[in-house]
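TICKET #2291
ISSUE: user wants both folds in one file
ATTACHMENT 1:
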Amino acid sequence: MNVQQSEQVLLSFARTFSVQERSLDRVFEDLFTGHYPRLVKTLVRLVGDSGQAEELAADTFYRLYHNRPPGTPETLAGWLYRTAINLGLDALRTNARRARREDLAGREALRQDAQGSPLHDLLAEEERLRVRSVLALLKPEYSQALLMTSSGFTCKEMSGVLGMKTDSLYVLLGRARAKFEQEYLKLYRRQQ
């Protein structure tokens, strides 16, 4: 019995309920073996995971077996693929929502762990004091340039505030960073 004949028998069962249970199982088995591999391939292209694609294909055939949709043999194959693709799209949406929730929960946990710790607060304050003490040792234009950079100023804004050309600003920033690192290491390398 080919796939089209199996579809016809299944559809006639849906309309008349006259097919015996044993022959219905045989018809369903023929439909399954005829469409399952192609259905799985289609779903793998959609969801990108062969295990999930096999689950969705099995769910599609489960729905076919229990719902017995009405229609013609031509529409039964269409029903299978339409149902499978809809299940695949639902799975993609579910996976995306789950990924967003997990990502959000992970970020929140990291933020709470990092910010809620008294040790973290103490270390952060100590680091701020160190940076301030090193900035106080630098030339004022070096300190200003470093502070403006860390505050998110653009090079054009910094050039205007400091009264220099953009090319000169890059040189100044390079020297300021090098001097800051040198002074910081000189003061705090032995304490770490």
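ATTACHMENT 2:
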Amino acid sequence: MFSFDLKRLYYGAVAFLVFLVAFFAAQMLASSLVRLPILASVPFEERHPPVPTPLPPPPATAVPMAGTPAPPPAAVATVTPEQPVPVQEKELTREDWELRWAKESVASTLAIVLVALPVWWWHWRRWRALTRSESAQFFRLYVYAMMLIALVVAIGHSASALGKVFTWLLGITDFTTRHTQLVFTQELVSSIVNALIALLAWWYHWSNVRENTEH
């Protein structure tokens, strides 16, 4: 039977929840770190080429009747050097929002990992010391739950990486531009790195439960 007390539940709940926060933040950090060099090396205009807009048809000119004077020509607006074209000014000041978002994502997820890992480690050590000897079954339940989550995440990322390889082998991947080639590489590498992070988390908890079983 499980022997519950508030102190043990507190350490276990904090260690469980904070580890999940650090785990998924590390996954997002890895994806952002892989994506950031691509966004920095490919200009925004190459990643999002402007869509050409069709020109409006010229206005129909009415043929003057006999004896009717022709209307005067319409005045053509001219742009002086002191008045820059608004469209050109807007294009020059367009911000690369994708690159900015990637940098903000790296900063925020890195901060979460750096804050969450020490909190998890302290509570995890306390939780492991309290439950290894007194509540071994409760300790195994916690570790097996972590192993299940990490294994499911590893399977998902491994399947995603394998699917990318299959799309490349079947010739249905778009490699027409340098950006699409880099995006394919980024998605493949991100899936592999995230799968390795999940497998590392699974192995760490498995080694703990195996050590507890041997003792």
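RESOLUTION: both attachments delivered.
EXTRA DETAIL ON ATTACHMENT 2: Residues 6-46+96-214 form one domain.
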